[in-house]
Amino acid sequence: MSYLDNVQKKLMSWDMAAAQVQAWQARGDRIVFTNGCFDLLHYGHLHYLAQARDLGDRLVIGLNSGESVSRLKGPTRPINDESTRQLMLASLAFVDAVVVFGEDTPLALIQQLNPDVLVKGGDYAPETIVGASWVEERGGQVVVLPFVSGYSTTALETRIKNG
């Protein structure tokens, strides 16, 4: 099996991801979930995702669909198409699954997967994290990781446009 085949096995439908998460949890693995657009993958993303993975045994990423990114970020986004963003994330060794969601929030996906840990970056307050109460009510943990300043997709986009 090629490396690309192994990477593509990490790209899962909601049902596939739910079954995989249940299997991992049955083995005693601690499942960490985070979500985002991850449009231009940069140091801030990589640092954040590696830290998230350190909080458990498996890292599952909910990835906003292209339509969802456009609704949230505007008509010029995403810069990278959905397939590219999926493959970039799945190629990371510390990522175990990537699941696309088309809604504006990942709540329904979080409810289907029931992760043990829900993680967001330091630009979020715990009370504003979608799905936090769901995870906590089931005995899970919500973690806000420190924001790595100086790195954002918007800043990169501006630098590229301005030369």
Task: Outline the structure in words.
The chain is α/β, with parallel strands linked by helices and about 160 residues long. The chain has one domain: Rossmann fold. About 45% of the residues lie in helices and about 15% in strands. It is built from eight helices and five strands; from the N terminus they run H-H-E-H-E-H-H-E-H-E-H-E-H. The chain has helices at about 5-10, 15-25, 45-55, 65-75, 80-90, 105-115, 130-135, 155-160, and strands at about 30-35, 60-65, 95-100, 115-120, 140-145. Strands 3-2-1-4-5 form a five-stranded parallel β-sheet. Helix 7 links the parallel strand 4 and strand 5. The protein is globular and about 50 Å long. The model has no long low-confidence stretch (mean pLDDT about 90).
Features of the shown structure:
globular; 163 residues; Rossmann fold; 43% helix; single chain; 5 strands; 5-stranded parallel beta sheet; alpha/beta
| Beta content | 15-25%
* Structural class by sheet pairing and helices: alpha/beta
What strand order characterises the main sheet? Answer: 3-2-1-4-5
Helices and strands, in N-to-C order? HHEHEHHEHEHEH
Main sheet makeup: 5 strands, parallel
Provide the CATH topology.
Answer: Rossmann fold
Q: What is the count of DSSP helices, taking H or I runs of 4+ residues?
A: 8
Strand segment tally: 5
SSE layout:
Elements: H1 3-8, H2 14-26, E1 31-36, H3 43-53, E2 58-64, H4 66-73, H5 82-90, E3 97-101, H6 107-113, E4 117-121, H7 132-137, E5 141-145, H8 153-162
Parallel strand pairs: 1-2, 1-4, 2-3, 4-5
